[in-house]
Amino acid sequence: MSLTSTPRRFGRATAAILFIGLASCRTGGTKACTEAACGDHLEIQFEPELVATGRYHFRIDVDGVTRRCSASLPSSGHQEIMDECSIRQGNGSLAAVTVYGVRPKVVALRVVRDQAVLMDTRVAPFYDVERPNGPDCPPECSVARVTVEIKEPAPGVQR
After folding, report:
1. Which of 14, 59, 85, 137 is the S-S candidate for 69 at Cβ 3.0 to 4.6 Å?
2. pTM of the model
């Protein structure tokens, strides 16, 4: 192979790749989808985020199945491993709790901090649909979202 034929070969290869790419974008062409995964889940966001010092316990009933998780503030600095849910921490706060593999109609939530009940409620989530590989590509996942307002009691006040 001579040096003069190398640019021509690269030019043909580039043209072939562009042609295949453009053909997949045109109407009636094959669409290339990525293979990112997703899963149904419930996200409970706290507004405002929980900031008071103490040990928080979350009991989440999703269509008759109870999930439990807990976290402390201030954070110990290491992620607690929990099978039942995941807690998203903010900057010195607890921002949200996520439960994976569920599509609830109704969610019962109980939040306790150091034996004080901060919230005990039932809510219906609203849903978003996520398609991580694009609008016409599988998979499609349902994300249930709930935003709850927790008014923490004044120091020394138990609910």
Report:
1. 85
2. 0.70
